[in-house]
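CORE FACILITY INTAKE
Project code: CF-77B
Contact: R.S. (postdoc)
Sample description: multi-component assembly, two entities in total
Requested service: structural model of the whole complex
Turnaround: standard
Below are the sequence entries exactly as provided by the requester. Do not edit them.
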Amino acid sequence: MEIFHHLAIGFGTALTAVNLLYALIGALLGTLIGVLPGIGPVATIAMLLPTTYSLEPVSALIMLAGIYYGAQYGGSTTAILVNMPGESSSVVTCLDGYQMARKGQAGAALAIAALGSFFAGSCATILVAGVSLPLSALALKFGPAEYFSLMVLGLIGAVVLAHGSLVKAIAMIVLGLLLGIVGTDVNSGVERFTFGIPELSDGIGVVVVAMGLFGFAEIILNLESTEKREVIKTRLKGMWLTRSQLREAAPAVLRGTALGSMLGVLPGGGAMLSSFASYSIEKKLAKDPSQFGKGAICGVAGPESANNAGAQTSFIPLLTLGIPENAVMAMMVGAMTIHNIQPGPQVMTSNPQLFWGLIASMWVGNLMLVVLNLPLIGIWIKLLTVPYRMLYPAILLFCGIGVYTVNNTSFDVMQTAFFGALGVLFAKLECEPAPLLLGFVLGPMMEENLRRALLLSRGDALVFATRPISAGLLLAAILLVLVIAVPNIRRQREEAFQEA
Amino acid sequence: MRVIRNPRDFYAGALFIVIGAATILLGSRYTLGTAARMGPGYFPRILGILLIVLGGLLVFRAARVSGARIPPFRWRPTLIVLGSVVLFGAIVRPVGVALSTVILIVTASAASHEFRPRESLVAGVLLAALAVGVFVVGLQLQLPIWPGQD
């Protein structure tokens, strides 16, 4: 079996001392920021990107990936113990996890969350390994027209599943694409939209954009609200699951894993969507749905497995097609680009150790999280008692040093502050920053593929509709928009009608 | 009758229209080329037009469907947070990591409504030691620790 050969390469890479260390650092940092509210994986990855310059690319990516799935674990810990979702993907875990904790079953809830996550992570890792080969082979047959259409589908897919206004989200993508092409045009050498500023001739850095929109803006918005965060004390007892609880939760873990694995692959999918979908399915399937919201163990086991599976499989489009499907994956694209790796189907053949090493490290990292997390819970809870007024200046400091050291210039810090202000403005206008980041990393690639596709077709734009794969991808994108937009329009008509 | 029923959509739309128009205007200096031989101005032109169309859609919709008001801007946290980081970026090289960290922590802490000057000074000194230890000694980033070392 070829897949075992590949996994052997992967584990050979992931199990070296250096890479184990970086997987551990990533997983621990991820758990830390998952526990702490007010800083998410996107800002953290942006913060740490500059420090990975000197590392081997595979070590850097292993660490950054660890932050993402570590955050899932950390988020669920605080959701269960203090009813506060550290990450958006653990919002539903609060519902039943915290109720279990109140009933004195905090240990059981944490254990099933960790075990479910580990099981889901293991299955998803195998899935990633299995699906990657055929998908990459398919993607290598893609011409520029197909690639362009795929990116359109990826970007559209990423926003239709998100909440909020579709028009705004698409506009944010376009704005992101535009920001992405600032700098020297590779084909003509012309500097575009640089306003004569020499620092901009290399383009705007992904760290600058992500840290401004996701890091600084988040801090400012948190400071605007004057409510105080409560510090809650919980007692930990009953650290382990009973046999009957395990039997009850096992099917939910299986369902959550399957659901999360599927939803994770979809553009716009990933951890958050998976956990919400799993919760509603568990509630529908339950013998006694009234138990949900009162401490049903399936309400913890299902979503927790699903979000971890989804987090893992959302690497599939990135690794095989080079298309990020959420903001964290966009940061991974940024990380690969910084290390001179063009994300896409060729990574698997040109850089097999990186590719399979990253996949294997996900499993290793998940194992570390299970082993480490339960004993470390006491420390994470202590950290929650640090008040926000002391936390955010420290976050700012790490952000500041991170941005400064990308190019050792204060210009980058000013740019980041600009994007921070922009992020606050966007939040007030209810414009999500994630689509902008996706557009930003895809901008140059999209222009290049559009250019090549039209060059090959001698300027005939119909090439996107006449090549079957490209046409299918575009059709899927249009269908997605219609599915979302049509009920929206109808609803708005009704609202307008009622007001008139 | 109010013309702007949904201020958030209206101003978001207006912003996109302005950016789109500026893109087309500024981008007019770049060669457009043809579809088959795209110049550097071609793709930005498409994006600019798209932004204007999408912004127009938002503005149009804002006049018909009502929505929530824009939450008020609070200038104090915005200005202090961003200002303190920009200041840090400007002084970190001449003044060194140690002192600029203390300055950053104390000024940034003032953005919170529960600002405690003495506490932030202590935190600043501790974090300065941490920053020097992790970034300069540990990660070997090329940053001066004290003033005049650059």
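Facility notes:
- Residues 7-62 of chain B form one domain.
- The two ends of chain B are 63 Å apart (CA to CA).
Invoice: internal transfer
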